[in-house]
Structure formats: structure tokens, C-alpha cells
Amino acid sequence: MKKINNSKIYKNICSIGLLIVVSTLILTQSCQSNSKSGKAKLIATVMAKKEANKKSTIPTPETIKKDVDPEVVEIDDVVTPKEKNKIKNELINNKIPPAQGKLIQVEGLVLREVNKLTIDLKTSSSQLEQIFAMNDYVYSKWHYVFDPSLNKDTWRSAEATISLKYKGIYSGDCDDFAILMASFARQIGLEARIVAAFDDNGNGHAFSEILVPENDFSNPLLNSKDYRVDDQGKWISLDWFKGKSHYKYKNNLKIFDDI
Questions:
Q1: Which of 179, 195, 177 is nearest to 253 (CA)?
Q2: Backbone angles phi, psi at 120, to 5 degrees
Q3: DSSP letter for each residue of 22-71
Q4: Exposed end of the chain (fewer CB within 10 Å): N or C?
Q5: CB–CB of 67/76 below 8 Å?
Q6: Could you tell me the CA-to-CA distances from 188 to 112, 129, 132, 156 in Å, in that order?
Q7: 76-90, 150-164, 229-243, 245-259: range with lowest mean pLDDT
Q8: Fold of the 71-256 domain
Q9: pLDDT tens, 100-111?
Q10: Phi–psi pair at 174, nearest 5 degrees
Q11: Between β-strands 204-211 and 192-198, what pairing exists: parallel, antiparallel or unpaired?
């Protein structure tokens, strides 16, 4: 029988063991490195998204001009005849009546938009819940765009603003936002109007208001909402400015309820 060299076996075992230990250390360090790299990338992505979400598309400029009558922009001014015909056919197929009103509008694209929003936002039948939910949503999806540099103040109809929506984002300035909100409010049966006013520095701004229905005087949804009271009742602001930033527009106040 051949004699076994125990010393040689021992050396081989030690070599194999050392190789396993070294391989394990390398693999562990590699995994830890990849893990740290993955975590770093994940954290960087989350932070980037968080920072991006902080960016507001709504600056705080004032756009109403003193002693300048606003120029009305209707849907025919912003869509092609082909697009207008497509919209018309879509409304007919969905049995939606044509729009009524020049700037503040009901029916037409306004009805279609309100139907979609109240369903998507899962609101109840409460008028106040519906308008506040839509107000918050549209504000979060609004991209501020100044009027053209023509020394004019252009006011777009609700249908014009809706037809210009792009990738789910609405656009325009404060009066366009106000007109759209007043239109949404009227579409669900609330009294609404537009208010134009100036601050102490002569900067002009426009916003919409809704009249609180008598049966909603004690509705908790009204808590902390900005409002004004006149001989008609309590008017709740749908402005994107809140508190002091809203109330500073108090001079040369003008109300538009039939535009």
C-alpha cells in the first residue's frame, strides 16, 4: 500500500481554505460596495424627485392692468377649424350641450371637464367638496404663462383654457385661472363671479369667488377659507393666494358676474 503524505494534504487544505476566505472577503466587499452604490443612487433619485416637486409652476406676479379693457380670447382663437370640428363631434357623441357664456361658461368642454374631475377626485355630491377639490387640483396642475407683450390684458374663456391643456397641465395667468374656477363652480350649481383688485402698490390681480349656499353656512369645509361679506352673503375665495397675500388686493375692487 502506498504511503499517504499527510504533510502535503495539510498544505493543500490550507491553500484551499485560504482561497475560500480571500474569495469570501472579495465577494463581501463587492456586495457591500454595490449595496452602498445602489442605496446612494436610490437616495439621490428620491431627493431629486423631492426637489423637483418643490418647484412651483405658479409665480406671484400681478397681471391686471389699470384702465385697460381685457381682450376676450375664445376657443375659436386658439384651435384650428379641424380641432374645433373634432371637439364639436365629441361633445355631440357624448350628448353634451354646446357651451353657454362668453368667458365664464357652462356646458360644452366645461361640463366634460367637471364630470371627469369629480369622478377622478372621488368627491361626494357636496358642491363645496367638489369645487374645493377641483380648485386644489387645477392649482396643482397649473403652469403660469404671462399674457403676450402687447400692452393688453387678455382674458381667455373657460373652453379656450381647457382646449389648451397639454399633458394634463393647464396654463395661463391669474384671470384665466379665475375664469376657469368660476365656470367650474357655476357648472355644479354655485353662484360665482370674478373679482379684479389692486394692492397698495398698484399691482392688479384677479380671482374668483363663490357664494355660500344657505344650507352650507356651518359646513366645516369653510373653516380657514378666505372670504368677504356683502349684501348678497358670504363669498368664499378660490384664489391661489391665501391669507394676507390674498387680502392685500382690496383697492379699486371691480366685480364681473356677467362676462
A1: 195
A2: -60, -35
A3: HHHHHHHHHHHHHHHHHHHHHHHHHHHHHHHHH--S------B-TT-PPE
A4: N
A5: no
A6: 12, 11, 12, 20
A7: 150-164
A8: C8orf32 fold (3.10.620)
A9: 999 999 999 999
A10: -65, -40
A11: antiparallel
